[in-house]
């Protein structure tokens, strides 16, 4: 095992898209383990839009990444050394660690991964991880879908949105997705079973496109984007609609305060509910969600896509896929 560790460090807070000047790759000595700690050799890094928010100094649900520290990310790795009773060398573990070859973590903050026959280990960062379980719990517990309702999903070709639409279909809803290319729109309709799709990059009037695709109005808007897309969706909601606020990718790279949403008054006018979702509120129910997602996967009722980029050194470029349209499905880096 090497005594040195490659790490992507946050040296400056990005203005717009993160660059190599903001996030350089550095070589640092491996630290020594203290009692209760575990050393992981990371195999996969989860690449998620929220990381961009953590790179800023904005107030969020987690503190900003400290300048000079490794970029924070969920990782899946193999235990190479342990001073915690719950882990031994060779175990697989998940945790909120960083973009690095090796992560030193408090064993109490890690989760053991027990593979079931047919599982690929990286599935625990996608379909059986925070992505799949966010889609599951956010839609079912906050969105409360009912048969015959219309569900509108933004970032519908993304990791969460693509699963949300399929779960909504299982629950008997009509599902419309908003995505950023014709290829993505074809994928979610032809392969994932969405009823309709809107390419927001090619439409001249997003509001009218939503109204055309959702003639009976929108009962659930699953929002991964925020910004102007949220504003347009708010003007199409029905009485007692539910807006599941899961992300705001439209604002993560913004260099100026993002105004609005201007149409928030529709929440009052429609007696609707607007509720934020964080997966940490459902940690104790992960086994339930994994069991159901596995059942749907094995029965062919849902499918998913993983986009895997090889090489720790390519993590920053892969991260920017999320913001320039190159990403489809769950994005991972194989270290």
Shape: globular
Classified in CATH, the superfamily of the largest domain is Medium-chain alcohol dehydrogenases, catalytic domain
CATH A-level architecture of the largest domain:
Alpha-Beta Complex
Beta-strand percentage range? 25-35%
How many independent structural domains?
2
Indicate the low-confidence ranges by residue numbers.
none
The CATH topology of the largest domain: Quinone Oxidoreductase, Chain A, domain 1
Calculate the mean pLDDT score and round it: 96
Structural class: alpha/beta
Round the Cα radius of gyration to an integer and report it: 20 Å
How many β-strands, per DSSP?
A: 15
Task: Write down the secondary-structure element order.
Answer: EEEHEEEEHEHEHEHEHEHEHEHE
Profile the largest sheet. Answer: 7 strands, mixed
- Measured between the Cα atoms of the first and last residue, the distance is 15 Å
Helical percent range?
A: 25-40%
